[in-house]
Amino acid sequence: PRRMQVRRLGRSGLEVSRLGLGTMSWGAAVDEYVAEEQLATFVDAGGTLLDTAPIYGDGLCEQVIGSLLAKHSLRDRVVLAGKAGVVRRGGQVVTDGSLRSLLAQLDQSLKDLGTDHLDLWQIHRWDSTVPLDETMAALDQSVRSGRVRYAGISNFAGWQTVAAQDSYVRLGGGVPLVSTQIEYSLVHREPEIETLPAAAHAGVGVLAWSPLGR
């Protein structure tokens, strides 16, 4: 059978499958048994890019992923793409791009996923209440420490994408962000106006979420 195509992410050397497997409902609407079937089907088809976040599945998603990766010895066959910057506090989901919160979320993700590193770590949302350099410093520190291999962003507008790339390159000694994750489909084409050109200018790859229009 035909195997899934692969792509280089941005201008980096990181190879990912053309299609990614989203896990936002794992641990909530999708139980571990269905998740196991989805993961097996995806990997058997040549898929590698596994997208997650600690907020997914009411906080249970990454425990499910960690369990399945260990059960089937799949860690080395997937590109784990995690996120941080969205947390639940007092029953509400809030954005927190502070250095303290981001690194704490990374530690928890690594514990739940049962791994010593993420292949890609992304800032989930822009936080206008925190200095951009502080947020980018979390990415820089995580890469320098070896807990993250590549850094990216998610749900950033065009100008925010360019600003983030500039900040990260300064902090990281010239090492660039590799990706931005945005909602993009035939029924959600707004990114074509500003965000996609900005991503091309900044040299970051684009990961489209909800590519089938939800």
How would you characterize this protein structure?
The structure is a single chain. The protein is an alpha/beta fold. 35% of the residues lie in helices and 23% in strands. The chain has six helices and eleven strands. The strands form three sheets. Strands 3-4-5-8-9-10-11 form a seven-stranded parallel β-sheet, with helices on one face. The chain has a two-stranded antiparallel ribbon with strand order 1-2. Strand 3 (20-22), helix 1 and strand 4 form a beta-alpha-beta unit. Helix 5 (158-171) packs parallel to helix 6. The chain is globular, with a radius of gyration of 16 Å. The relative contact order is 0.13. The mean pLDDT is 96.
H/E element order: EEEHEHEEEHEHEHEHE
Helical residue percent?
25-40%
Helices, by number, come to: 6
Number of strands: 11
| N-to-C span | 28 Å
State the gist of this model.
This protein has 214 residues and is α/β, with parallel strands linked by helices. The chain is 35% helix and 23% strand.
Brief descriptors of the model:
214 residues, alpha/beta, two-stranded antiparallel ribbon, globular
Please describe the topology of this protein.
Elements: E1 6-8, E2 15-17, E3 20-22, H1 32-44, E4 49-51, H2 61-72, E5 79-84, E6 86-89, E7 92-95, H3 99-113, E8 118-123, H4 132-144, E9 148-154, H5 158-171, E10 179-183, H6 195-202, E11 205-209
Parallel strand pairs: 3-4, 4-5, 5-8, 8-9, 9-10, 10-11
Antiparallel strand pairs: 1-2, 6-7
Helix pairs in contact: 3-4, 4-5, 5-6
